[in-house]
Design a protein that fits this description.
By secondary structure, this protein is mostly helical. It is built from nine helices and three strands; from the N terminus they run E-E-E-H-H-H-H-H-H-H-H-H. Helix 1 packs antiparallel against helix 2, helix 2 packs across helix 3 and helix 2 packs parallel to helix 4. The longest helix has 20 residues.
Length: 222
């Protein structure tokens, strides 16, 4: 994969294609555009297949989409989806999943944390899943810690941007990330998670009222 081009009409992936002459020798290099959303959906579907060759194809698609600078070209939602696939599919996670995950984590760390809040629950769950694999040190712990701390700290300051269900899911996942980290890295995430928990408890009545207004319910509730 040479380049990822996000746009209003969807994400386009540009692949180099070798063209051969009549003698079978490479004559030129052309470019072929592939729908990025379709590529991601296909990879996700293949990764769930019981067939080994399907999962291997999903792994190759993940590598082409997430390794190196191309990881930065995907929209945030797609980066989060590729990261989830990299850490949640055992056969992929055991091979090149951690390299793809680390590339995506580095790309996500270059974004403003406030722009990631809509995907915070899924991102934090993916970080926890990657860190609790059999070889947790294959995941970039420093990068994962930076991403988790940035997400949780930003969520604490913009708590009302998420609905109650997503806010609770992000809180729970932040403690999962803290528990999955080693002693040297757990404290920063644990401290931010504890502060987020305090914010959640303090703002719970107002959060319930906001949910009632947003969902047009007559009574407070979940």
């Amino acid at each position: 994969l040479a380049r990822v081009l996000p746009g209003h009409s969807g994400t386009k992936c540009i692949f180099p294609v070798a063209q051969a002459d009549v003698a079978g020798r490479m004559a030129s290099i052309a470019a072929s555009a592939v729908d990025g959303d379709g590529m991601l959906a296909c990879a996700q579907l293949l990764s769930q297949s019981p067939e080994t060759h399907d999962v291997e194809l999903a792994r190759l698609l993940l590598e082409s989409a997430a390794l190196g600078p191309v990881a930065e070209g995907w929209p945030i939602q797609s980066q989060a989806a590729w990261l989830g696939m990299a850490v949640s599919t055992p056969a992929i996670a055991a091979s090149s999943g951690s390299r793809a995950a680390n590339s995506l984590i580095a790309a996500l760390n270059k974004r403003e944390p406030s722009n990631l809040l809509g995907d915070a629950p899924g991102l934090l769950r993916s970080l926890a899943a990657g860190l609790t694999q059999e070889s947790p040190r294959s995941i970039d712990v420093e990068g994962a810690t930076t991403l988790a701390c940035g997400l949780v700290a930003t969520l604490r300051g913009q708590y009302f941007r998420l609905n109650l269900c997503d806010a609770v899911a992000a809180l729970r996942a932040s403690f999962d990330v803290s528990g999955a980290l080693g002693n040297d890295h757990a404290r920063p995430v644990a401290d931010e998670a504890a502060l987020l928990f305090a914010t959640a408890v303090k703002d719970l009545p107002a959060k319930l009222r906001a949910e009632r207004v947003f969902t047009r319910r007559r009574t407070d509730g979940l």
